[in-house]
Specification:
Length: about 450
């Protein structure tokens, strides 16, 4: 029986568990995606780096596992997240090597073959055996992100200060193997930004520096935060901060591609129990990559890469005049939706419903409420059950002056990526109970300025 909850145009391996993107790089023109992968099941264990390659960031080919744990080495318990850099033509991967119970987390290096298919871990790993003593703890120290500057190589690592909150630590090296600790570039407050920071990214965008952090805060199990500011004398001075995505989009990793675009990748977690994952035989997908930029207020903007548009099939266009009914003639669970709403005094709520049952009772409502200036994703199952998340997701979303509401919705099986006005993102997971729970509705046809829906082609055909 077809698993209609399984996405068809987001990347996931043929089977088993996948989480964070690791070491994404455009190498000799091709996009290589490495990721946290368990070759033995659809649960989080036995971490290896899986590998897939693409010419266009839309179609993927799964390749053999890239990096595996080495018995008796510091990575014997798993190859945790990291990145890849181009060391004058030699690919070098940085990752966190862990012991059996993850209580020892160390920063390690591996060198890749010219085609990035085979990797050799360094005999003298680890490069950095433990966090600085002033962290007051030794367990949480992971996810190296490395870049080259004019005066050498730099690395940031996620960690935490006992009793304080998450911390991002800055290191420097001349040769990629000998690293010196400099200072934290950001220290959070546990109550506001979470007790531990994972998967830091630190990069220049226009004339600013951007720090991305994955943290466990609030209701959800993961939120990606961003900070924009200046980087002077090894110190980061944040000026603007925001939430990059408050949904199931986690462990984001960015890189600059050969066109000079800053591309963002992320793991889309599941919103169901581990038993359900194991029953399905797969867990975790990769988000559609997004191009990052800054607006005039230095807020982070995100736009799905235009490459994904090659998957667009049949197109349905609706104008304000042609929309008379809430229920649309178009249906499906693989859709790319672009909608613009004219905000005016006649209506308080604006949005769409997808994955609706034929009677309209169950499905996902994506709604902007102008009274509370909030974007929400509301999931309704036939009956609330313990196997699927159904809490209401939301983020503040402020429209300026006469700005219209622009929604981009990428629906794919059980994945829903929602981005409002390129700057507010709430990613969700919803598992329709029947394959005909695929109807699309508009909440209020009279406020739609324009609506385009494309039926998306599978990347595996
Ligand atoms: N996932 C990895 C860690 C990272 C976490 C382990 C984030 O390296 O901190 O699979 O999802």
């Amino acid at each position: 029986m077809t698993d209609f909850n399984r996405p068809t145009y987001h990347y996931l391996p043929a089977k088993n568990w996948m989480n964070d993107p690791n070491g994404v790089i455009q190498w000799k023109g091709r996009y290589h995606l490495f990721y946290q992968y368990n070759p033995h099941g659809a649960n989080h264990a036995n971490m290896h780096w899986g590998h897939a390659v693409s010419d266009d960031m839309a179609h993927w080919e799964e390749l053999p596992i890239a990096i595996s744990p080495t018995p008796d080495a510091p990575d014997r318990g798993g190859i945790f997240s990291g990145c890849i850099v181009d060391d004058e033509g030699t690919p070098r991967a940085f990752y966190t090597g862990v012991n059996e119970d993850y209580s020892i987390q160390t920063q390690c290096i591996a060198t890749g073959s010219n085609d990035l298919v085979t990797w050799e871990t360094y005999a003298d790993n680890p490069l950095i055996p433990a966090p600085p003593v002033e962290m007051g703890q030794t367990r949480d120290f992971r996810d190296p992100f490395v870049w080259r500057a004019d005066d050498g190589w730099y690395m940031v690592v996620g960690s935490r200060i006992e009793g304080v909150g998450g911390a991002i630590l800055l290191y420097r090296s001349d040769n990629l193997t000998d690293w010196i600790y400099l200072n934290p570039i950001y220290i959070g407050e546990a109550a506001r930004t979470g007790i531990m920071f994972e998967c830091p990214n630190f990069f220049k965008l226009d004339d600013k520096w951007v720090l991305l952090i994955s943290s466990h805060i609030g209701h959800t199990t993961g939120t990606v935060l961003y900070f924009v500011g200046d980087f002077v004398d090894h110190k980061f001075i944040p000026q603007v901060e925001g939430v990059l995505d408050s949904g199931y989009h986690y462990a984001s990793l960015s890189h600059e591609d050969e066109k000079g675009r800053r591309i963002l990748w992320a793991w889309l977690r599941e919103g169901r129990t581990v038993d359900q994952d194991i029953k399905a035989g797969w867990s975790g997908i990769q988000a559609i990559p997004r191009i990052l930029s800054l607006d005039s207020q230095n807020r982070l903007l995100m736009t799905p890469v235009p490459e994904v548009e090659i998957l667009r099939g049949q197109h349905h266009h609706f104008s304000a005049q042609s929309l008379t009914d809430k229920q649309l003639s178009v249906s499906g669970l693989s859709l790319d939706i672009s909608a613009t709403f004219a905000i005016n005094d006649s209506a308080d709520i604006y949005g769409m419903r997808v994955a609706c049952s034929p009677d309209g009772k169950h499905g996902v409502t994506i709604v902007y409420d102008r009274r509370i200036e909030t974007l929400q994703v509301q999931r309704v199952y036939a009956q609330s059950d313990a196997e699927h998340d159904d809490y209401i997701q939301g983020l503040p979303h402020h429209l300026e002056g006469d700005e219209q509401l622009e929604l981009r919705i990428l629906l794919d099986g059980s994945a829903i990526e929602v981005i409002a006005n390129h700057r507010t993102s709430v990613t969700s997971r919803y598992y329709p109970a029947q394959s005909d729970h695929h109807h699309v509705q508009v909440i209020n046809p009279t406020v739609i300025a324009s609506l385009d829906i494309w039926e998306m082609q599978s990347i595996w055909d």
